Amino acid sequence: METNLAVLIDGDNIPSAHVKEMMEEIAKYGNPTIKRIYGDWTKPHLNKWKNVLLENAIHPIQQYGYTQGKNATDSAMIIDAMDILYSNKVDGFCLVSSDSDFTRLATRLREASMKVIGIGEKKTPDPFIVACDKFIYIEILKNNTKESGTDKNKSKESRKQNLDKITPRVVRLISQTIYDVADEDGWAFLGDVGSLLQKKQPNFDSRNYGFQKLTPMINSIDKFEIESRENTNSKFKLIYVRNK
Fold it and tell me: pTM value?
């Protein structure tokens, strides 16, 4: 059964660029049955959103800023989220914002057994990130778009830069996670490793390091070894990994 998602976008806090890529990313995790964006549409800085909304069938919610310096958009989005929660029409939420004001909302939705995916810029404060089941940086989606048009030489240079991003701390996180789910021989199913990494660090994503999948990322680190095993129930092989 497909997961139905409510996508709620903070229009005051998210750029309109790469919304198409963002919606494609959200579709990987479920069916976005509710798509709403909140903001004061009388303000000129939101004009860039108008064509994007039509192209992606996102419903704009008007919220006037009644008080100077106060973000009325946050309140409207939070109230709507709770209304949707109690309607029992969705299985999860995608909160699109870089604002830490949604930390408590994410926590409350998870308390109600909702899956919560956050999407925002890298400036997003840690409390909001860790309050989500998974958090995706918009910059990843931008980089994927750019890389599709690069030549081979630039790709090699970019790969070297990406490898430099894999710090000793990241290696230790992966190593400990492998140890946590490994069998007596030290082998761990990569799917279990990926799931536990996500629980430990919601913003962990191999794309942050320039790899589309976790397998090639781990394969690029000489501290791990990978083994492919036949799967009797599928044509796809099972990937196992262990610490060297």
Answer: 0.84
**DSSP conformational letter for 220:** T
User: Contact, 58 vs 37, CB < 8 A?
Assistant: yes
Residue 55: count other Cβ atoms within 10 Å of its Cβ: 10
Query: Which residue type sits at 105?
Result: L
Q: Show the domains of the chain with their CATH numbers.
A: 4-143 (3.40.50.1010), 150-243 (3.30.420.610)
What are the tens digits of pLDDT across the range 129-169?
A: 999 999 999 998 876 655 554 444 545 665 556 667 899 99
Distances (CA, A) of 232 to 37, 135, 235: 46, 34, 8
Q: Are 76 and 97 in contact (CB under 8 A)?
A: no
Collect the ranges in the chain with pLDDT lower than 70: 65-73, 143-163
Whose structure tokens read 């909001």?
A: 128
Largest CA distance in the chain: 63
Contact yes or no for 61/6 (Cβ under 8 A): no
Tokens of 200: 């430990």
H-run or E-run covering 209: none
